[in-house]
């Protein structure tokens, strides 16, 4: 116990020295041996800050970092649920995964649903925020109204929308028929199913994002707009040259969070399936997303190694796409300094 | 580290040690409806030292997922766990983790209490009994008398029997029906195929646990028959258990339905009062009598009170209690004593045209010759591979492509 503590103390020493600056004499070799009380107060100064921030890092380690790393470990094994002796496979799960047609199908579905939901969602959210930012009667009422879908339970949303998009008795097909359009089999047609699921996502999240954007809009100083007005800029010009660039940090935040959420989409496609409980995402995987495939591998096929490999590929994918989005958003909403 | 360690440990062990009230606490985990709600207080009243807590999961799949996970974890299971027949082989595989009820159960509970095929299915190769049978699902056929009449099909029970003699005659009648009606013949291809599949001596596996979906010609022959009927427009293309399927009953979207005993509830509930007196039931099942579904009560080795748990399980699966459960929620008894009981046979359901529905199912149950051997992933293949593949055919995929999808999916699951 004491040895371990000492060890830690010594290891942290160089960092301490570096931060304290170089010219100072080494405090760890005092002229005379310090008393116990002195040493105690030294430790207090040195280690207490770490102790104070420790709860977060310990919790993060236990519920965040450990599962992440353990998943990576499991992904290297042929690990069946309740298996006492998993077999080490190395990277074989990953090799199988990259040759797995079902995985690529799920990847395409995920990206397609993500694009169909995120892009319209952000565009509408920004314009909705712009509308909410004008002089409205009962502004709080409007703001609460756009947030309402977000409050509704996701399961209820799933049930209602899968009824609306029912192939035989759904309301939307009935409306289509009334205006003379063809019925669409929302479950069978791959693209149609993506639109239906994206609608579910958009309905739920647009208002939420609009409020975040609205908050950022209201933080933009009024005098900039006044100056632009004096210069003769019209409303559209003011929006694109002032509002949008100044929203940049907020837009980046919204884009990154919706990327993380959008690529992990699970509940919506699972509830959309006509057959409750099915994980295949339609009869032939028309709308099986990566997370749904991961869930199927783990809890239906009980292949935890493979599911862990999917989880890690998804993790890396989200990081990559979030980075790309970050760069694109920065370009799009640039302040114009480099022009 | 110490702080979190302590917190985690505190989450774990609350059900150890003697209960504060000095009673033995038993837990029982079931899914869907077993009809035990009134039986449990009855047992507690006659056994003052026992306190029972029932956990109910809505659907079968999450219940078994939880069961298999906790078997793996080595703790967390209830004293009595219900197991559906489709998952039985996975449990028999791990029979070492369950108590042999022959050993710890009451001495007077013998396999002879149950239909032979029901008891056999829960007996391991070395003779251990790991589950007491609860209910079964003897299959009958439900049909809409009014729709038959409207399409000019005979409705006299004997003539219906002739029409339902074989699958060929059934689908022939279906062709005739859809030519004369706006309504489909059956609800969903997979609901018909399930019964055909259950009639085969073995399922998707042979008895030495090899996947035989490709080599067993009978499976493909059934597939061809059903999918031909689909291309002829005989299917209402409703996905079983989904919202549109429920609506289909109410809007009279189909004229016949494969009817295991437990289907009576959904047929009545979904069709609604406006269709009362229109559904008839016949014991003429194309291809012969068979069983679909049914469960067992097991006592995992994790149980702290296995003897008491076995005693409770034995009581719950005794004929008298099973009849009460049937009256409450509809799980059909699997015990010979119950199947012969006038108490059961006199039960009638006014909703249906056919009097004495209980008699129909009781006689069907006795005609079943064996429980089909179901290999490890059998239930999984049925629900998650075959049903979606048949749905794909209903959505327009060519039957041969659908078959390819089914075979590939089954192989992937079985590997």
Automatic annotation (TrEMBL), chain A:
Q: Name one Pfam family in it.
A: BPD_transp_1
Protein's cellular compartments: Cell membrane
Transmembrane spans? 49-70, 111-132, 144-165, 246-266, 304-328
Superkingdom of origin: Bacteria
What ranges does the record give for the region Disordered, renumbered to this chain?
Answer: 1-35
Entry keyword set: Cell membrane, Membrane, Transmembrane, Transmembrane helix, Transport
State a GO cellular component annotated for this protein: plasma membrane
Q: Taking every annotated instance into account, which residue ranges of this chain make up the domain ABC transmembrane type-1?
A: 107-325
Q: What is its main location?
A: membrane
Name one process (GO BP) from the record: transmembrane transport
Q: Which family does it belong to?
A: Belongs to the binding-protein-dependent transport system permease family.
* Protein name, UniProt field: Cellobiose ABC transporter membrane protein
Automatic annotation (TrEMBL), chain B:
Highest taxon, organism lineage:
Bacteria
Q: Which InterPro entries match?
A: Bact_solute-bd_prot1, SBP
Report the protein name in the record: Cellobiose-binding protein
A Pfam entry, by short name: SBP_bac_8
Protein's organism? Goodfellowiella coeruleoviolacea
